[in-house]
Amino acid sequence: EEGAAGRRGERERSEEGLAERGPGAAFHMFVLMEDLLDKLKLLSYEEEALRRHNMRPLSRHYFALPTNPGEQFFMFCVLAAWLIRKAGRPFEQPQEYDDPNAVISNVLSELRSF
């Protein structure tokens, strides 16, 4: 019961925060995801990043809705590694079962060096 009450309290605080930011705040993440997808398409992510891994293209709300966190995290890692390499830096492609903390640490470390 405490866990459910805690989650309910978090959700209520989150909803209050959205109400304070305006009625469109709840949809902001969807707009951001659509912008991200447009930018990835301009960079030909489907041909360059996804075909190599035999992955399907992203839906327009892929990262906006938590559907499969493990799959979404791996997709993020694939895209992050590809973008880092596209920027001209050598970066080893993370594998699906690599330690998530190590992968994020490597990505952040590389981004800091930019």
TrEMBL record:
Region annotated Disordered, chain positions:
1-20
Q: Which InterPro entries match?
A: Intra-flagellar_transport_57
Pfam families assigned to the protein according to its UniProt record, in alphabetical order: IFT57
* One GO process term, biological-process aspect: intraciliary transport
The domain of life is Eukaryota
Q: Compositional bias (Basic and acidic residues) at which positions?
A: 1-19
List residues traversing the bilayer.
none
Q: Which UniProt keywords apply?
A: Cell projection, Cilium
Q: Where in the cell is it found?
A: Cell projection, Cilium
Gene Ontology cellular-component terms for this entry are: cilium; Golgi apparatus; intraciliary transport particle B; microtubule organizing center
Query: Known PANTHER family for this protein?
Result: IFT57/HIPPI (PTHR16011), INTRAFLAGELLAR TRANSPORT PROTEIN 57 HOMOLOG (PTHR16011:SF0)
Spell out the family assignment given in the record's similarity comment.
Answer: Belongs to the IFT57 family.
Mind telling me what this protein is named?
Intraflagellar transport protein 57 homolog
Please name the source species: Erythrocercus mccallii
